[in-house]
Write a structure and sequence with these properties.
Length: about 50
């Protein structure tokens, strides 16, 4: 795995954190958190395109 591909997975950390908090702790994410997670996933998708 290239270093650029590996570092692009760092964008997934906030998304996973929001999901874990929602599932395990019952914390409902705010709209800005959902928007930020969406932006992070879009960034990871753009970086990983061939």
């Amino acid at each position: 795995m290239d270093a650029s591909l590996a570092t692009s997975f760092l964008y997934l950390v906030p998304v996973v954190t929001i999901l874990q908090g929602w599932i395990w702790l019952g914390e409902v994410p705010e709209m800005m958190a959902i928007l930020g997670g969406t932006v992070a996933l879009a960034g990871a998708a753009v970086v990983n395109q061939n």
